[in-house]
Amino acid sequence: MATKFRKKPIVIEAIQFDGSDEASEAIRQWVEPAAAIVDTDHIEHLWDFDAGCYIFSTGKMIHAPFTVRHLIVLTLEGEMLAAPGWWIIKGVQGEFYPCDPDIFAKTYEVASAVRPRTFRQPPALDPLRTTMTQTPSIGRIVHYHSYGTPGGEFLPEPRAAVITCVYPDAPDLADPSKLHVGLAVLNPTGMFFNQLVPFAETPAPGHWSWPPRV
After folding, report:
1. For the chain, how many helices (H) and strands (E)?
2. In what order do the strands lie in the sheet with 71-75?
């Protein structure tokens, strides 16, 4: 019988290729070695109209569109193409590979150290009701505040979540920052599980809070 596994949380680096000279230059300066990225706008002279592909001096053939600018990424699995809008990701082993923007949006969110957009605040709360006077317990409904996605496909906003685990250092009413819980977060596209989520009285991306009483 197959055993279920959950993917470990990892932090990656990524730059989105928008088809511009600036993005191409930024990515090629970032990638090491630089030869791992080839801009098709720079190898137009290698296009063979009869073969319908780029042919290098070594005889290697790369099938990429001639009319649309692409980046050719030399990955561990071979050459892969990145069209405008795609992301170039640096993996945990230092490898580089392209990623479809739809898959990127479903897989990644901005790490907590980077908050490029203003967080969408919920309705103003009564300050007398925002202090930690409740005790988190398994099954309680709370809000998880998402980061949104780098490309703006999903905006930062509160999501309904169910507490699945209360960690040993919670509850500690004297120090709300220690209130860490595990959450089952309910997204419009599905449910995901998040561990060691810290509490925040003021809603903040990557934190949980009690739903406002309205």
Report:
1. 2, 14
2. 37-39, 71-75, 78-82
Query: Rounded mean pLDDT of the chain?
Result: 79
The residue among 155, 124, 122, 160 whose CA lies nearest residue 143 is 160
What is the reported pLDDT for 172?
46
Q: What is the pTM of this model?
A: 0.49
Is the CB of residue 196 less than 8 Å from the CB of residue 182? yes
Helix (H, G, I), strand (E, B) or coil at 197: strand
User: From CA 183, how far away is CA 211, in angstroms rounded?
Assistant: 14
Residues with Cβ within 8 Å of residue 10, at least 6 apart in sequence = 92
The residues of the chain scoring below 50 in pLDDT are: 114-131, 170-174
Q: Give the pLDDT confidence of 126-175 residue by residue, as tens digits.
A: 443 444 567 888 999 999 988 766 555 566 788 899 999 887 654 444 45
Strand ranges, E, within the chain: 13-16, 37-39, 47-48, 53-55, 61-62, 71-75, 78-82, 87-90, 96-99, 141-145, 158-166, 180-187, 190-198, 208-209
For the chain, what is the radius of gyration of the CA atoms? Answer: 23
Contact criterion met (CB below 8 Å) for 158 and 145: yes
Query: Terminal CA-to-CA distance of the chain, rounded, Å?
Result: 48
